[in-house]
């Protein structure tokens, strides 16, 4: 299982399912639910890079929900996890791993 730990949650990938949890840190305060998405429903992982003091976010896009949420929607969207600038390379590698599984 692979895991990306962001600022307000974690994204776990076991090869067949993407699960977004809100354990620890700011995730526990988000009031967002745990989301489980079959890999067949994942369209993309859209990434908004951090800018200056604003965190970036990764959005797990699914069939019917392919558009990146706006900055004001990030904290309310259960398919979104925030990340810091130093995590950008890690989140991109994680994205590549998941997208490779969608094409098989």
Question: What is the topology?
Answer:
Elements (H helix, E strand, L loop, with lengths): L1 E4 L4 E4 L3 E5 L13 E4 L3 E7 L7 E7 L17 E4 L4 H15 L2
Antiparallel strand pairs: 1-2, 2-3, 3-4, 5-6, 6-7
Descriptive overview:
The structure is a single chain. The chain is an alpha+beta fold. It is built from one helix and seven strands; from the N terminus they run E-E-E-E-E-E-E-H. The protein has one helix at residues 88-102; strands at residues 2-5, 10-13, 17-21, 35-38, 42-48, 56-62, 80-83. A four-stranded antiparallel sheet has the order 1-2-3-4, with helices on one face. Strands 5-6-7 form a three-stranded antiparallel sheet, with helices on one face. A hairpin with a 3-residue loop joins strand 2 (10-13) and strand 3. The longest helix is centred in the last third of the chain and has 15 residues, at 88-102. The protein is globular, with a radius of gyration of 12 Å. The two termini are 17 Å apart. The relative contact order is 0.24.
């Amino acid at each position: 299982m692979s895991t990306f730990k962001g600022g307000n949650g974690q994204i776990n990938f076991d090869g067949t399912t993407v699960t977004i949890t809100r354990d620890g840190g700011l995730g526990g305060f988000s009031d967002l639910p745990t989301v489980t998405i079959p890999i067949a429903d994942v369209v993309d992982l859209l990434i908004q890079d951090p800018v200056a003091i604003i965190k970036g976010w990764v959005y797990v896009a699914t069939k019917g929900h392919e558009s990146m949420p706006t900055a004001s929607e990030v904290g309310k969207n259960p398919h979104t996890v925030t990340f810091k600038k130093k995590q950008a390379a890690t989140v991109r590698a994680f994205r590549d791993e998941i997208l490779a599984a969608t094409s098989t």
